[in-house]
Amino acid sequence: MENDQIIAIAKQAIISKINGENFTFENISSDLLQPKACFVTLTINGRLRGCIGSLNAHRPLVEDIKANAIAAAFEDNRFLPLTKKEVGKINVAVSVLSQPFDIEYHNAEELLSQINSDMGIILSYQNKSATFLPQVWQDIPDKVELLEALAQKAGLKTDDWKHAKMNGYYVTAYH
Question: Which of 5, 31, 70, 129 is most exposed, with minimal Cβ within 10 Å?
Answer without folding.
Answer: 31
